[in-house]
Amino acid sequence: MVYFALRRQNFAIVALLLLSTVQARLLLISFDGFRPDYLGNAQTPNFDQFVSEGVEAEYVVPAFITKTMPCHHTIITGLHPESHGIVGNTMYDPVLDDTFWFTTKDTEWWDNGGEPLWVTAKKQGLTTAAHFWPGGETATNGGYKPDISPPYNGSEPFRQRFDTVVEWIAERDIDFTCVYITEPDAVGHAYGPDSQEVREETEEVDDILGYLIGNLKQRKVYDTTDIIVMTDHGMVEVSRDRKIDLYDYVDPNDVERITETGAIMSILPAEDKTMKVYESLKGKHPNMSVYRKDEIPGRYHYANHRRIMPILVVCDEGWEILANFSAQSESRMDLAATHGYDNSLASMRSFFVARGPSFRTSYKAEPFDMVDVYSLMCHLLRLEPAPNNGSFANVKDILIDFTSFSPSSRSSFFASGLTSTISILILNLLA
User: Fold this and answer.
1) Which of 328, 315, 419, 41 is nearest to 198 (CA)?
2) Following CA atoms 170, 172, 178, 181 in sequence, which dihedral angle do they give, to the nearest 10 degrees?
3) Taking all residues of the chain, what is their mean pLDDT, rounded to a whole number?
4) N or C, which terminus of the chain has less Cβ within 10 Å?
5) Tens digit of pLDDT for each residue in 370-423?
6) Residue 288: its H or E element
7) DSSP state at residue 386
8) d(CA 201, CA 183)
9) How far is the CA of 312 from the CAs of 60, 90, 221, 293, in angstroms?
10) For residues 78 and 385, is the Cβ–Cβ distance under 8 A?
11) What is the pLDDT averaged over residues 354-378?
12) Binning pLDDT at 50, 70 and 90, where does residue 102 land?
């Protein structure tokens, strides 16, 4: 049997060759409104263990505006909102002459030239699933949508959602899965980021992550799955005495439509009233900045789309602008916290942690932009990325890059890799 005994020094060679032909699955998880500092303000043993075995970014700069729909579509496409067209949680399209809401699934709203990762993956032969990810139920880019994308059900318990995701990975061998969890955003809005309720919800989210990890381990897929956990935006405290009423400055008859309120306001003036509305607001309050569309700062990447309204108001951190205080509910006036502000603010930052066979261990990464995550995920899945605004160079340091892999060589790499590995293994066995 001596001919079938591998020499010890050849184990490393064979192991590396086997690793180079095995593609890890990818699981992307978004916890809505999870500010990075929440992890330091609560007991989070599961996150702590996860980070010790993987990587953590100092922070991620989210998209502007720092709201759920734009940021999630930036994560999944690598594009700024002005490029992918999901410019708000609510928006008006003058070509469609229609308004977008959270529940909108029509293709014409989501199909704006950007390519979600599940489309990129499916075009290149991988299987995909989206569990309540914004846009995941809609066919785009010529009819592509995830292989599995159940309709949104906000009442489904979080643990049940993760049971479903683990089944997809373990039983159906899905290559890329993304899942969206609505907390701790809602608790943050209701009680504020520094509240005991948010600390308790953070610990509940940690328990949910531990539950997921336990299930993945039980199904023996934890160590063969690359897992990214991140959020879309942060959260900051607001108060009733830091609110601005639009109609204290502007005649309601001069406004045709308002599509976003709060941290920012998007205004479509009535016909021929743009300059009047602009001049009524510009410089009139010390805690808001007012821009015509052609004045919006370039760093926001928020000007070149028809769904961006002619006038944008951006409030200072902690301030809000609403239309007609008397029409607002008491709960809206007493909202404890919100988001949507300037994406350079520390309070709006996203967190990013990751673990798996492709990631380094106990590594603290420099900050990067949300648009970079798409390129990272394409690399993990051995995909040629669609055109995007991000850069893999900004995130490659978080990976164990033991091969000089090029996404464009994916097909030939995997076609030849297994054959080469078997051939070398046989040679070593006979040596």
Assistant:
1) 41
2) -70
3) 90
4) N
5) 999 999 999 999 999 999 999 999 999 999 974 544 444 444 434 333 333 333
6) strand 288-292
7) P
8) 8
9) 24, 14, 47, 7
10) yes
11) 98
12) confident
Q: Is the pLDDT of residue 16 over 50?
A: no
Terminal Cα-to-Cα distance of the chain (whole angstroms) = 12
CATH topology of domain 240-335: Gyrase A; domain 2 (3.30.1360)
pLDDT of residue 197: 98
How is the chain split into domains, by residue range?
A: 13-237+346-409, 240-335
Contact (CB, 8 A) for 26 and 228: yes
Using only C-alpha atoms, the chain has a radius of gyration, in whole angstroms, of: 24
The predicted structure's pLDDT at residue 424: 33
CB 134 within 8 A of CB 28: no
Within 13 Å and on the Cβ side, how many CA atoms surround 308?
25
Give per-residue pLDDT as tens, 124-162.
Answer: 999 999 999 999 999 999 999 999 999 999 999 999 999
**164: annotated active-site residue:** no
Residue with tokens 């309070």: 347
Q: Is the domain covering 13-237+346-409 a CATH 3.30.460.80 domain?
A: no
The number of beta carbons lying within 10 Å of the beta carbon of residue 141 is: 19
* Residue 425 confidence class, pLDDT cut points 50, 70, 90: very low
Alpha carbons 127 and 132: distance in angstroms, whole number: 17
Q: Which of 310, 313, 311, 309 is nearest to 321 (CA)?
A: 313
> What local confidence, expressed as pLDDT, does residue 113 receive?
79
Asked whether the domain spanning 240-335 has the same topology as the one spanning 13-237+346-409, the reply is no
Element spanning 18, H or E: helix 11-20
| 352: helix, strand or coil | strand
Which residue is catalytic, options 44, 68, 261, 421? 68
CA distance linking residue 25 with residue 226, whole number of Å: 6
